[in-house]
Amino acid sequence: MPIPDDVTGEEIDKDVRQELQSLPKGLADDVSRNLVMVARLIDEEPEEAYGYSRVALRLASRVAAVREAAGFAAYATQRYSEALAEFRASRRMTGGVELWPVMADCERGLGRPERALAMAGEPETQKLDKAGQVEMRLVAAGARRDMGQLDAAIVTLQSPELASSSVQPWTARLRYAYADALLAAGREAEAREWFAKALEADKDGATDASDRLAEIDGVEFVDAMDAEDVTDVTDVKDTDGASAAPVADAGDDDAPATTDGEADDRDA
User: Fold this and answer.
1) Rounded Cα gap, residues 138 and 157, in angstroms
2) CB-CB contact of 175 with 194 (8 Å)
3) Mean pLDDT over each residue of the chain, to the nearest integer
4) How far is CA 145 from CA 89, 109, 155, in A?
5) Among the listed ranges 54-68, 159-173, 192-206, 254-268, which one has the minimum average pLDDT value?
6) N or C: which end of the chain has fewer CB within 10 A?
């Protein structure tokens, strides 16, 4: 697969480059450049990222970082069985537990939420760092929802991390998942409160909390291109020649602003 000239391979994490030092230099460079393309494309063009991951895998299947990258590319394209196999291979090579939550989420993707829940109770979960434990909680709550256990999903998400006022990288997604579970349970007022809290913490647009708030509030946003077609509503005539009524504003001063974003993890 073609790789742009500006991709040198030096862009990858230094720990990954260190892993690749076991390979001949030319081969290591080829693998690293393909891994850079995986990282560049996985969010916007996951199928292309998957293609580059397969090239890297053919070149260096015995490198844990390559197996991990291949796993994430497969996961991004919903090839959950393949992703799980790659994550397991990487874990066998490193002995680490960092991939435990995403491995559990693959079980969800394969229609086995009970296995994901079982993994949440395994000793590996206790070895995760704080971010990993929050991720595991999100996966477990998602598994509960897969099984139709909404109240249990809500309880699963109730945690010190959810109650904390400090904003961490996981805060927006955790609050969003809690709000979504509340809404699914018919607790709209509480859901609105937590979508607002998620939006407050979502500095990078990781969720669509603003859209969910607008939906709850009944706010409709007019597409900018459509709005340009209405330059002067006083000149718009109906079919009988009378002036048409002015177009109503999309919202008042209290209407929430929109941001881009989406919840993860297949989103618990």
Assistant:
1) 7
2) yes
3) 86
4) 29, 13, 11
5) 254-268
6) N
Per the structure block, which two tokens stand in for 40?
């560049």
What is d(CA 242, CA 227) in angstroms, rounded to the nearest whole number?
Answer: 21
CA 143/CA 94 separation, integer angstroms: 27
**Angle, helix 113-120 to helix 130-146, in steps of 10 degrees:** 150
CA 125 and chain centroid, separation: 20
User: Using an 8 Å Cβ cutoff, are 240 and 216 in contact?
Assistant: no
- Residue 250 in this model has a pLDDT that exceeds 50: no
pLDDT at 235: 47
Asked if pLDDT for residue 257 goes beyond 60, the answer is no
Residue from 220, 195, 217, 219 nearest 208 by CA: 195
Which of 52, 36, 47, 73 minimizes the C-alpha distance to 2? 52
Is residue 105 within 8 Å of 96, Cβ to Cβ?
Answer: no
Residue 14 burial by CB count (10 A; 0-12/13-18/19+): exposed, middle or buried?
exposed
Task: State the angle between helix axes of 130-146 and 171-184 in degrees (0 to 180), rounded to the nearest 10.
Answer: 20
pLDDT tens readout for residues 2-29: 898 889 888 888 889 889 988 999 999 9
Per residue in 74-100, pLDDT tens?
999 999 999 999 999 999 999 999 999
Cα torsion 234, 238, 243, 249 to 10°: value is -50
In sequence order, which ranges of the chain are alpha helices (DSSP H)?
14-20, 25-41, 46-59, 64-76, 80-94, 100-109, 113-120, 123-126, 130-146, 150-157, 160-163, 171-184, 188-201, 209-217, 224-228
